[in-house]
Design brief:
Blueprint: H1 2-20, E1 48-49, E2 63-65, H2 73-84, E3 97-100, E4 105-108, E5 129-143, E6 146-147, E7 151-156, E8 191-212, E9 217-239, E10 268-280, E11 284-293, E12 297-306, E13 322-333, E14 336-347, E15 349-355, E16 368-371, E17 375-387, E18 390-413, E19 436-458, E20 464-473, E21 479-481, E22 483-492
Antiparallel strand pairs: 1-2, 3-4, 5-6, 5-8, 5-21, 5-22, 7-8, 8-9, 9-10, 9-11, 11-12, 12-13, 13-14, 14-17, 15-16, 17-18, 18-19, 19-20, 20-22
């Protein structure tokens, strides 16, 4: 009966995952409502352009960027990576069974209930079934040490060729001589300076079960249900360096499309966007085999397969398959046990690691996938039986991500502003001073994360086990939460 139930569940997972991975990308014609598009659409689906956040001004077509997301692919890549490695309660840890010679039967442990987020070498036992439920909350507040509630970003004007003109206006000087960021092209000196507040919260509810096929081999399945909420607030200011007032923000309350907001000229406005989603996350199937079992120690090998069953554009899953082989070594003495885990994870390709925002500029790159970064992971910890039916657990959790997309603080230096009285259509005089604005840059690089976890496990009666745990970050690399609380319940049969 147990065998049949397991294979039925696994078959449903394998059939469901490819179907759930089919998704629609962010659109430039309508707001898709996808969580991954919340930042991309903070200025509206047309971004910082005429017809979008910028007011119409004569024949000029202002266009500063496709979206905020084009400057923040690192956020999506980090979210995709993080969703692929969200810590799960170890399905086969918990109440263990040992053979009581005097009674001649297997009896549950009384003092030590194993690790919470790591694996021990032991299995659940032949034809034993363990099932449970856990809840975790992730409140992501930093990305590579930069505060997501105070994230600066600067937008510069794209190259523009006026209708009927043979020259191109460009911040970098254009494609012809003389330099074309002066005179009638001075408008390209304008910049939009923003201060951004990005809020991302994930609640993860995970159902899991483990079944012992033999005394040394067990199979586990973890099925998370994910609730995610994301909001983006951007306080934007136009620096009118061209002194022509060509670029102004629209009035969202005006009945006439493209009208500037007040006071006129309107160089400041705050934008807001929020959305959320709930659904099945990435399902993980684990197999573990105990290679060696001594009197007080053991060593097991295992492997996880992560299926892209969660909608990645709603941040419910990573959007990529993952394969993670690992080893687990454990040693116990009376009420104390220790363990050491290590493994490597390969990840497939996902839009979250590439670019999900379709470009609004002809000839530029379309949305594409890329591989989520691979990672080496390790953990070391110990558990101790404090009282009968109560144990404590501690873990050090480390991960090393290879060649990931990251961000770092930087500055942007504006071109000197026009000193001719505004508004002017042709600028010939410029300030001798420059303005520097805080910004950030993207780059590729490997990084390590470090976390500490401490928890309690209580067996109130029978084979019921209650778990409480908290993970605390020890460094700032990657997308991080200060701490991650966990509550769980499991039952062995």
């Amino acid at each position: 009966m147990h065998h049949r139930f397991y294979w039925m569940v696994l078959a449903q997972i394998l059939l469901f995952a490819p179907y759930a991975a089919a998704q629609n990308l962010c659109s430039t014609s309508a707001d898709s409502g996808k969580v991954a598009c919340a930042v991309a659409n903070v200025y509206g689906i047309n971004g910082l352009s005429n017809g979008g956040a910028l007011a119409t001004h004569g024949s000029h077509e202002g266009h500063f960027a496709d979206s905020f997301l084009s400057n923040l692919n690192a956020l999506n890549s980090s979210i995709g990576s993080q969703l692929g490695v969200l810590p799960l309660v170890s399905p086969s840890s918990g109440i263990s069974f040992s053979f009581n010679k005097s009674l001649g039967i297997l009896v549950p442990s009384e003092y030590n209930f194993g690790p919470i987020l790591s694996e021990r070498a032991g299995t659940v036992g032949r034809h034993k079934l363990l099932f449970g439920f856990s809840y975790q909350q992730f409140d992501f507040d930093t990305l590579d040490g930069m505060d997501l509630s105070k994230l600066p970003a600067v937008f510069t004007h794209e190259d523009y060729q006026p209708s009927g003109s043979a020259v191109t206006c460009s911040v970098n000087g254009g494609v012809a001589s003389p330099t074309l960021n002066e005179g009638t092209c001075a408008f390209v000196r304008d910049t939009i300076v923003t201060q951004n507040d990005i809020n991302l919260r994930v609640n993860q509810y995970t159902a899991f079960f483990s079944f012992g096929l033999t005394d040394r081999l067990d199979i586990s399945v973890a099925v998370p249900t994910v609730n995610v909420r994301m909001s983006a607030t951007s306080a934007a200011t136009i620096h009118n360096n061209g002194s022509d007032s060509n670029h102004q923000f629209t009035d969202p309350n005006s009945s006439t499309a493209g009208q500037p907001c007040l006071p006129n000229p309107c160089f400041g406005r705050t934008f807001f966007n929020t959305t959320g989603a709930t659904g099945i996350g990435d399902v993980t199937v684990r197999a573990k085999y105990e290679l060696w079992k001594g009197e007080n120690a053991g060593f097991a090998i295992g492997g996880d397969i992560r299926f892209p069953s969660g909608d990645s554009l709603n941040y419910l899953g990573s959007g990529a398959y993952g394969i993670k082989p690992f080893g687990a070594l454990s040693y116990s003495f009376k009420r104390i046990s220790t363990h050491l885990n290590a493994g490597y994870e390969w990840n497939g390709s996902s839009f979250l690691a590439g670019d999900i925002a379709p470009s609004q500029t002809a000839g530029t790159v379309a949305p594409f996938k890329d591989n989520l970064p691979a990672q080496f992971f390790y953990s070391a910890g110990a558990e101790a039986g404090v009282l009968k039916r109560l144990s404590v657990a501690f873990d050090y959790l480390g991960q090393y991500f290879f060649n990931a997309t990251r961000i770092a603080p930087s500055t942007y230096t504006e071109l000197p502003a026009c000193t001719d009285p505004a508004p002017t259509s042709t600028c010939s005089n410029f300030s001798g001073t420059t303005v520097q604005n805080p910004d950030f840059r993207q780059f590729k690089g490997s990084y390590s994360t470090a976390n500490a976890a401490v928890g309690l496990r209580v067996r109130p009666f029978g084979k019921l086990l209650l778990t409480a745990n908290v993970v605390v970050k020890l460094n700032d690399a990657g997308l991080r939460s200060k701490f991650v609380p966990l509550l769980g319940i499991s039952y062995s049969h």
